Batch of 3 targets.
Target 1
Amino acid sequence: MTQFPWRRALRRVLSMLGTLLGVAVLVFIMLRAIPGSQITAGLGTEAAALTPDQRAALEAYYGIDKPLVVQFFNWLGNVLTGNLGFSSRAQTSVLNLTLGALPVTFELAVLSILLALLIGIPLGMLSASKPDSARDGLGQLVGLAGLSVPSFLLATVLMSWLSAKFAFNPNGEAYATLFEDPVRNLRQMLLPSLVLGFGIAAPIMRTTRTALLEVRSQDFVRTARAKGVGSRRLQVRHILGNALVPIVTMTGLQFGYLLGGAVVVEQIFSLPGIGRQVLIGIQGKEYAVVQSTVLIIALSFVLVNLATDLLYRIIDPRVRAE
Amino acid sequence: MSVDIVETTEPTPVKAGVRLRLLLHSRTGMVGLVIVAVLLLVALAQAVGLVGYDPLVQAPAVRLQGPSGAHWFGTDQFGRDVFSRVAAGVVNTARISLVAVAVATVIGTALGVIAGFYLKGTDAVISGATNILFAFPPLLLALSLASVMERNWFTVAVAIAIVYVPIFIRVARGPVMSLREIEYVRAAVSTGQSRMAIMLRHVLPNITSIVIVQVSLSLSWAVLTEASLSFLGLGTPPPAPSLGSMIYEARTLMYVAPSTMIAPGVVMVLLVVGLNLLGDGLRDVFDPRKRGT
Amino acid sequence: MTRGSRAQRGTLSVISLGLAVAMAASGCSSSTATGGSSTAASPKVGGNLVVGITTDPDNLFPWKATQFQAVNVLQTLYGTLTEFDKDLNVVPGLAESWTVSSDGLTVTMKLRTGVKFADGTTFGSEDVKFSLDKIKDKATAAVAASSLASVKSVDATDANTVTLHLSAPDAGLLANLAVINMAILPSESTEQSLKTTPDGTGPFVMKERKASQSITLARNDAYWGPKANLDTLEFRIIPDETSIVSAMQSNNVQLAILNDPLVAKTAQGGSLTVTKTAQLSYHVLQLNASRSVLADVNVRLAIQCAVDRQQVLDTAALGEGEVTGPITSPAYKSDPSSRPCPKRDLAKAADYLAKAGKSDGVTIKTIVSQGEYATSVAEAQNLKAQLAEAKITLDLEVLASDPYVNKWIAGDFDAAVALNGGRPDPDGMYGRYFTSTGNLNKVAGYHSADLDALFAQGKQTSDPTARKGIYTKVSDNLEANAPWIWLFTGFTYTASSSKVSGFTPMANGSVQYLRTTSLS
């Protein structure tokens, strides 16, 4: 076996840290660019009645009276020492909020991806098994539907219909974590992960189909076939095995996006996830909440990418053979 | 919000005439082309005044009417003609997604080519910025852009473009890196041609097909993104209609005047399906991996 | 991003103000309108009621909370010296009774005895003095500070009596004391501790809070009035009104206040009842008379004459509301037909424009918020179309909620489409906008010596009939000078499951009658 590539690992870690720093600067600037402050967010139009003294007192209270550079490094310094800030809305630390919200979104992302793979891969295999046939058309049609229906529409319609017709609406109950009440938790995850999974199944199905078609046309498959490797074994072991790389890439990419991009679905199904935490933070202008949460989302995204790359090394025979 | 990225493969050029023939032969591509063309033709007919009314004129006396001979898709709460608004919405939506994808393509491809060609420091900066944009939640990006800029169809397009730029950078950078090593590019470098000339003459033509495939995927995606932004209240501001904002505004009129929601909804799904099919057709034609299957 | 609901409104019959009427669900619903006063049989004690709300309360400190949801929760936790009954009359609260001296400068309040805070300490006059002094203190930055402007000092005369010394008579004071921003807090309590551990004299006490998910309250067994019927009261956060209705249909939520008429329409029928309540808040086109062409009263009157308010209401809100004048509270209501152009009159509008020397028309930049409330953008679109016919061009600037609020509070606009909160007392409602010293005068953009005198007179008059006369003059003055164009008032919708009884919705949006609500 080869030696552990220290230099490459170090470079990767440095590049990850650079990305995170960039995200930190960007989120800081973007938040400040949005007009308004925690004062106007809290008081709304009543903020017009504040005297200059009161305004100054409130600015000091929220820590937004200091120069921007000082604010930035104060926050960054705190984050580096493990203090993510405090939410005056929730009256708890951002760390506590995140420890509650991150598992919700993580679970939702995992379940959605699982569903997407369960739908997407078999459909892709079905389509690729006989290109331009009726079953290919069927598979492509489902993929097209997944790509063409906006998730907010699907989510709203699904929930309204199920609760009006069947009084079935697990998301109306108080949210339970997987440890508090596994059954209720999974029921609450069912609809949101179906909606998200359906949307993601489409790109996964397409990737699978394309990858399978491509791999099949390659030399080693012809060789294997010529050597008399059985059809079933060829299909699963050789073809699917070699088509895994693009599928894993696509899955990793979608998973990373789900960590920060499931806001609308979390909103419609009242899941207290990380996307909603950012949204509520933006609405309340709780700078520390948004900055730290976005940084955590970016960190998860970067880690998912890393995991995907590591996975390549395991599954890609070409990389392994090096 | 899902994304679709073309995997990078080594590029090979094909003649234009062959491509057009291939597209016309691809069944999906043809269906897509017809759907999109019909929608755009009807929209154009409305825009030049052949059919329908002014999409902005209010006539409260005839508000919330069902479909009729005078108003094919009925009227909305202000008595505006829904058909004319849907037609104008198609133009607006198509314009937003075209501009968004065009901006993303030009900027993203340029940066991607530069990064892939120069490598070293330039690449580090561009790829670093790409990584940051990738790791940044797109919602927050859109939100802050919408709050900072005065909102019109162009700024909405720019907001969508910014989310898509890093994807084009990645798509372009990979093949350029492998092109660098190809004999004739090396030869061009050694004969002392300017880098600009090499990039334009030798590199760019060789990655067009991979970029076009990405464009074909992005167009329909941009239409859906515009709809999502509208759902968050960040889409095209009224009174100018876009398909996304029309669906969003009519969401609660569904029971009172169903046509105000169904008409833009169906047309949007048609447009997205058409663009997707057209994209598939283009991919079949341009994607080097697909040829020969 | 559903900060407010943004929907259009359904075709529902118009009802008279202040009255809550059940929307008969096409004859299949047998449930009648719920009413706090109609407690026929003795209500069942016990049960856990879940109330759906769209947003997590952002601040649980009563003196600073302005968000609707936060105010709702605080109303069940804290007490005030006076209270409103269901018709918005001032009735005793923590003050059992009061007398006003003949010169109107001294108010003596007899406090209720045997009242306890949630932490067990006894309520007394020192708590009242502490609270009122602190609210007046600029350093506290309490939102109701200006309501106590006329109060010179507060004395704790004895353990159960407080005396308020006024600098001038203030007839609006007793009503101002009834809002939750005037909640009496235990002396020596701090904002920091109360934010995490509320400590009030209300019918419920805090039990548990899960940030972004729910706030659960329990019955306060030491409450001074009739004890609440419910064992617990949970405010469950469901960000979308449509989702709240879904949760009600599956009986996970039993009560909700909805703003979106069409969501309310989908809720009715089956086991749910929906009642609507006219609101004090009003939809208005604010003109900024301190800016550009709008400084000329004739331009403002031209706008006033060029608008058909009923058309704005019909198109933007599908008729769900009532055309209104400036004052919306039932006791002082303005007559909407008493204005320069009660009906749209384009000829008169042209005359006014000619008088202003602007016959060629004017252009006015107008800010509109998208997402702040349901009908804003629709109102703006219709106003634009109507005014265009009078050569008045509204340049619409559609803004996200934060930039809009920022411009509004700075008075940085020519015109603004707005939904402003109303109050039961007209002095509290408009004194801060249209008097030269009012703290929102910058936003109103208009004041005059006449209005200053009228508002001062209103404050000094306590006889109800005389007050009504004064505020009618205020209302007429406002319409004659058209600093703003008042449009219409809307409704809120109370959706409840058939098991809920004893809840009375109020015109000021208060949910104080959760204390008499029971579940069968």
Target 2
Amino acid sequence: MNTPSGRSRRTACTALALALPLAALAACGGGSSTDTSAEKGSATITVWAHQGQASEASALQNAVKSFNSSQKNTHVKLTLIPDTDYTKTITATDASKLPDVMEFDGPTMANFVYNKKLASIDDYVSVRTMANATDAIKAQGEIDGKHYGLGMYDSGLGIYGNKKLLDAAGVKYPEGLSDDWTAAEFTAALQALKAKDADGRTLDIQEGNGLATEWGTYGFSPVVWSSGGSLLKDGKAEGALDTPAVVSALKTFQSWKTYVDPNTDGNAFAKGRVALSWVGHWMYPTYSKALGDDLIVLPLPDFGNGPKTGQGSWQWGISAGTKNGKAAGAFLDSLLNDTNVTAMTTANGAPPGTVSVLAKSDLYKQGGPLQLFADQLAKPCGDSRIGTSCVAVTRPVTAGYPTVTAKFSQALSDVYGGADPETALAKAARAIDQDFSDNDGYQLP
Amino acid sequence: MTIVNPAPATPAGREPAPTPASAAPRRSGHKNRDRVHGLLMSAPALGGLIAFVGVPFVYAVVLSFYNVRLGSPLPPRFFGLEQYRRIFTDPDMSGPFLRSLLNNLTFAAVVVPVQTGLALALAILLNRKLKAIGLFRSLFFLPVVFPMALVAVIWRLILARGGDGLLNSALNVVSFGNWGAFDWLGDSLTAMASIIVLSVWQGVGFQMVILLAGLQQIPGELYEAAQLDRASAWQQFRHVTLPGIRGTLVFVAMLTSVLSFRVFDQIYILVKGGGLDEDSTRTVMYQAVTTAFDQNNIGQASAITVVFFLVVVALTLIQRRVARTGNED
Amino acid sequence: MARTRTPLRRFLDYTVLSVLAFVFVLPVLYLILGSFKPSGEVLSGLAGFLPTHLSFDNYKAVLDSFNSDATGYFWRFMGVSLLLSTVVVLGGLIINSMAAYGLARLRWKGQGAVFTLVLLLMLVPFEAVAVPLFYLFNDQRNTIYIQAVPFIANAFSIYQFATFFRAIPPSIEEAARIDGAGPWRTFFAIIVPMSKPVFASVAILTFLTQWGSFLWPVLMVSDPLVRPLPLEMSVFQGQMPVDWGQVLAFGVLLILPVLIVFAFFQRWFVQGVASSAVKG
């Protein structure tokens, strides 16, 4: 813990000592073991990161280790926090108590800028690091021309296909983005597959993750964007999220439920029970191991406004209250170097977030198995200019994102469960707008 | 597991004291001295109670009238009764809260009779002079000492969906292979039932011990007299046992109903990491915590807290009233 | 119901009790057996209930897998839980019994009003103040003392102590007073030693509640270095990919201290619980 926390803690203990002498003695005496003071003349940088998969956690711990051994005067102290509690932990922690460097999920960035928890990193990270970030990563970390975060990796959505099953059912599937299938063609493909399938369930949408979660928003807002709608337009959901086009797209989505394998064991696609799996890049390692050459990667279906995918992932930023900005910047430079980005993206199979590693990546290079994801990310829309020609959409960059995702994913889950899309979307839009008006539109300072 | 409104232990072998007023007669010279010492002695605990119970509670009431968000740069804004309107009557926003109230009522409506009845049955079974009866008492009491975080995990595995869960697998054997995989926690029909089962398992030993103590206070002569009158076992239960423990039974039932309104740990753990169906199991406390912690909406969470408190107080007051009439018998 | 029974009745009693006890203990058996099984066998239905071979591998893995400041250390979680329980139990015994004595046995103006206030505060369950406390003490997140201090003063403990103290005959204090002892000396030298039962039952109930405490740590703790065991239990079982054998071994280690206390103080446990409810 850094200095300010130590001070206010002492104040609290003094106050406590006046009120409850014994309690203070016991509690403040015992608690001091958590304070680790830095050695004289050197800086300790505290870092928070989400725990992630075991392989990601160890890649990160190695990055920290190598940074520490390369530095004389700076020492990084890493704390891993469970994924499910990560965002709320940062939200709940007072700005003065945040670590020097912290990771955060892409769409939550605006909220942390709004809450004055993040500093702009432009002054701290080197020009080289900034220049090496991919456009999509830079776009994700930017608000009003300032950058608040950079990521080691990006993300992408697609549909994994089982070539053998598709061919057996005589289904024609797209080669890439240019000849993407429309929603109607996709429905027809599902029907054709159903005829050949034992239980009639031929699609996996990772239902086990739950749809009223960030997976729901990330995985299926492309349906909204591809139909010409958006989650939020000029700070309002009404008129963007509840348009007739979006309603009709979600009706189509709803109609697919009969084809969906509940996939309670997580093995539906790998075991060949379904021919199609609607999911992100992260399943590639598992799927390619299970299917080998039969694995193909397809874009999400086009609902009229061109195929779309989600984008963005965990980013690194520097907290607004840091006293070690320079050292924190040096740590970010080190995290984002080729060695560490390669190690991390090897661990989780994600699209690298830096130009140099992306160029060398066997998975994402031209002709590589995941070239589609790289192609999608090369056509970024940002969060508001969602036209027909761009593909990778950033989730709304707004401090009100927590509400947007909560309400949208709930509506999505309700629709999937059988609710009327028009009612559900209108309700979500009203709830989002109500929350925005409660918070004066989440105007960034 | 916390105890609500209980009656006290008394020093072994002593009669309860008369009223406090007559307990310690003093000459007036002691009064001033005693006041200083009395205040000094109670100051640490009183300070703690005021700081960590009194003040926060009043603060909750105040916060519930404001639009206040955790970490927001906007100052809290006076909201009047808006938070209450939203959780009770707003067509868009009242849903989850009203559902949580309903879930709590369902939980209580099942758990109170089932757990009390089971506890009574166990207590009667265990109120015998048998060898090793102490061992049996300990076995039934054992789950009470298990933290809910652990209970939730054990039952999550027993109820695991898929054929590899213990329950599904056992049903499959019993039904000669006709039982498939069933998602006990994830299915909206059985999610609440699963929570009830694991909560009763964990809690019933507690009520059992209280009832057992109640049973042991019934004088043995009453049973001997009943036997002389050739009363059947059921008649003895009906006319000796039940009246004898009526007060205790009412107390246990009310205690269980208050505890059942405080359900949180198992719901939170199993929704967040165990595939528990959220909507059919969310409780008022779950709603308060997620509103505060996941949505940062402190104002609304405070309003939920205040409603929660009013329900608990109402239950406690009913409990007192019933217990009083019970004791007059 | 304590009557002599025929051998047949006794046999029936034992059968019913044994069957019920087995059903009750099954989850506990499942926990303990599972903690010694290879992980693949934990979730393998009825067939895997009885393990093929037992080992301490899971325990070793649990103790080894938490091995850095970033993830925390198992013994540290345990230490935090023990420290919190000790502080809350001991601190609580001291200040709550003192308060109870001051309120129940010393006569002073306003004493009745203060005692009524304590009774009123007893109506407020912790859950009802968790949200405002969370908001009020937000800047003290991730400290040991914010996890312990709010739970030391306890209205219910005061009430338990007070009722016990009131039943002590006044003649005992009178004698002490004649010997020249003030209220403090009377309390510590005479009242406390003769009140062991109530101290034991308050200590046990407080310990049980504190050891399993979950709601408050969920709200206030994210740093693994000050995380108590039950919270880490829920974190550990939610981490993908889950190794169930290790999770159950963690569970056994979590319950072990309570079981030890339970084994030694069984009588007090039961008596403490029972006396918390039954009058006279």
Target 3
Amino acid sequence: MNAVFKILKKYRLECFMAPFFKLLEACFDLFVPIVVKSIIDIGIKNSDTSYIVYGCLILIMLGVIGLSCAIVAQYFAAKAAIGTSTGLRRELFSHLGRLSYTEADKLGRASMITRMTSDINQVQTGVNMTLRLFLRSPIIVFGALIMACVITPMSLPTFSIVIAVLAAIVFTIILAGIPLYRRVQSRLDSVTRSVRENLSGVRVIRAFNKEEGEISEFMEKNNAHTDIQNFTGKITALMNPLTYVTVNLGIIAVVYLSSFEIDSGNMTQGDLFALYNYMSQILVELVKLANTVFTITKAVACGKRVQAVLDTPSGVKISESTKDIDENAPAVEFSGVGLTYHGAGAPTLEGISLSAKKGSTIGIIGGTGSGKTSLVNMIPRFYDATEGCVKVFGKNVNEYDPEELREKIGIVPQKAVLFKGTIRSNLLWGKANATDEELWAALEIAQAAEFVRAKEGGLDATVEQLGRNFSGGQRQRLTVARAILRRAPIIILDDSASALDFATEAKLRQALRSLDYNPTVFIISQRTSSIAHADNIIVLDGGEAVGTGTHAELLEPCEVYREIYNSQFKGGDAQ
Amino acid sequence: MKKNANSLPTVKKVLKYLAKYRILFAISLVLAVIIVGFTLYIPILVGEAIDLAIGKGNVDFEQIFAILIKIGIISGITALLQWIMNVCNNRITFGIVRRLRRDAFKKIQELPLSYIDSNPIGDTISRVIGDVDQFTDGLLMGFSQLFTGVLTILGTLAFMLSINLSITLVVVVVTPLSLFVAAFIAKSTHSLFKKQSETRAEQTALIDEMIGEHKTVVAFSHEDEAAAEFDEINARLQKCSQKAVFYSSLTNPCTRFVNNLVYAGVALVGALISVSSGGAALTVGALTSLLNYANQYTKPFNEISGVITELQNALTCAGRVFELIDAPSEIPDAPDAHVLQNADVDGRVCIEDVEFSYSPDRELIKDFNLSIENGQRVAIVGPTGCGKTTVINLLMRFYGVDSGKIEVSGIETRDITRSSLRRSFGMVLQDTWLKNATIRDNIAMGKPDATDEEIVAAAKSAHAHSFIRQLPKGYDTVLGEDGGALSQGQKQLLCIARVLLCLPPMLILDEATSSIDTRTEMKIQDAFAKMMQGRTSFIVAHRLSTIKEADVILVMNNGRIIEKGDHRELLDRGGFYAELWNSQFES
């Protein structure tokens, strides 16, 4: 919640003004019964018409003042609340942008988006409600108590007891309700999960004739949800009746006690009227307070979740630089590198050593889960090696400024992602000031020029969110173009041609090799054909390098490599 | 309630659901009448009590006590009835929610695949979950609020009239002002809220992209540009949100002000009447009751004005829910449809002149003819979107053919019950779907009565046993939503084990090994070979090595079979297939 308070500090004036004017409004509300009391006790009793008219004019004036105060208060409350959510969103967004891959993995995409949207909206409502109501209600409740005591001190015990009992009822039910609502929610979640599962798995469910079974399973979950809803409903439905009875008992006590006071001349009818009114006011305000508390608890929970994200360190620490970039050193060098992901029991990579000469092509091959992507992700420092060190041009990657390091690397991730905008705007991610010629050159190399040319608008053709209006293969080629555009000395292709047919992939490889500035290229693939020509091939199996060398060098001695090769080429004699 | 032409059928359907709860509903209505009556009666009693305590030495204790006891009893009864009414309302609400969800879920099981494929999953979920909740909350809560609100207004008017006519007139004349003010504010803030939600949607889309694809953003050091774009939208959002929130928050103070005016008016007229008649026309106690009413009179009005928008919203939600529940189901099997016994399946599949397309304006499959003998292996290859998966959709009758026919064992599939037809195929899809249940349950999906030994044996031949054993709870590990922590390849192995266990007479393998590395794939080839032995199988793959052994290779492009033959024949022909095959060796 620190972040919320930090931002609220900027709205110090608003945070003071809003409750202050609410307080004024509440005070004027409390005067109303007193004024009416005087009308009864003086105006009516003495048949003083002008006194009555005065009294009513005062009532209207109180209303006008109350309204003006309220408007001022609402204005400041809205300003502070919206300001808070705006600031919080901004801070969270830039924080999320700075998170390391490890931290981002831990949070997960869905939860990051919920934090940014609905959680922050809840905080906004919470701040608004707190400023508007949280102070008003206690003021009215205790103000009513004080006013009642001013009228007659004997009302202190009755009013105190009623307030205490009401508060006890309201808060007990709310506190009992919160965990119950949570259970209702979790059972609803399981109902939702069931629906989602049945929609996404419809083919399998029908193929296995599981419709009936799924229905009965769903009914069970659905009924469980209804049961807990009914139970929760029974408890929360107690709130209104119980508070109603309490206040009426309070009124009975007030009338009863007052009747003696009036009989002995210590109180007037008007006094009784005022007491009766204060009692009713207390009930209304306590119920409002209860609802506010409910909103605020939710907001606090959301605020805490946002804070938890803000508190995760962004993970990238830059060590003291000990060495300068050496253009003649190997482009990438791994020495004894190991990687264990956060929370994982076993290392994903162990004892990896390799050296990629400037301008060479390195192939990385291995089965699913053998650690290929993890290996290259350490080069741009998406993940930090937990053992050993990774050097780029002779300098340890954690001594680089991350931006400077990533400038040197053009990476094409496994999942080809484009962003809403145009082809041009997407490509410019790679190099912000690229000219049209540069763009087309990159597209040519990526084997994408042909289909971009065919698109209406060419470079300015629209790209929908996540590039949905392009096929998988087209997306892959555009992401390759985006990476090439940087003319980065190191290019990493992480299985980036998997959706391309063999012919196109071969052309792409050819084009990459002919790049004039001679970059170092890392190619990850499952296909031996994609990496066979590489200067150096690293064969990964279960996180370890089980073979290094050229295609010819590996084929004989490396069993894993041979197996992979054979699995794809056995019967290649058919040519 | 707004009953225009569109909402009328929806209202009728809602009433049908409500009819099941008509007794509870009737009880609830009767209770509401009693509760409102009693609640309004209490201020009158208090007023009477006040009138009995006029001043020093002028207090009628006996009668006051009698009234107080009456108040106690009535408020006790009211509270009890209130609770019962709430519980009744809850029962009705939650019961209808339950029924709606059940019906919607049953419908999901009956919907044609074309509906499910063409509607985003999120949309259907929001109908079953969010819309159902909003509808019941809005409609039933809204209705009970509306009902008690109207009763309260009528009751108050009646009680006020019984006390004094002119004061009642004051209230009746001034109160609509409050409604007017509330409506005015709602109308003028509507466009502000609309702009707010548009800006919010714009921002969410940006968040979705930039946060969702965080890795790409980081890889290109695009954080600052993203933040700048975000800030720009954020600033616009701040501006319009602030206006929307501020103006809409004026509703309460404004209606409260109108209420204060009513209050002052009642006090003035009441006091003057009392003075001019010397207390005969209006006692202090009666004035107290009237002021009490005046204080609460505008409240139901404010609530009702909110309820009406809520009801409209609820009806829209109900409409969306019924759109799903009343969507046409798959045409049911004919009553005399064949029940295909797996033992009788002879493995012949015959496709004749089949035509099919997903949408009438884009033709896909045309002149599709194919005749397959028992035990043949049919491979389907071709570029993305050429109709490979569509063939499977037709074989399984997930979609019906537009014209032509498909025969299995000499019987037209249209004349076979869907469930028995599907039972005769074993299917492994590229899209590996697993249930949120244990690994054991997932493997045994096609054969729920399988023994543990059979399950383990199936897992072993799918090469899944070793990784299952390494999981903390082995075969009893509960998989999270959509397979949870398993890798894509592991999920695919489980799907293969699932089919290996029940082994139907025909097989469909749609990119069944696409996520498995080639080494593991080689290893499970044995299992596959054994599985396909003597079984008609359809294989879709883009790894050509997988399909080389097939008896018939169909090369598809644009929904048509452009080449047909075995591997060697097709290579010799030197056409599309040969080009595909050779390109994998170029480097």
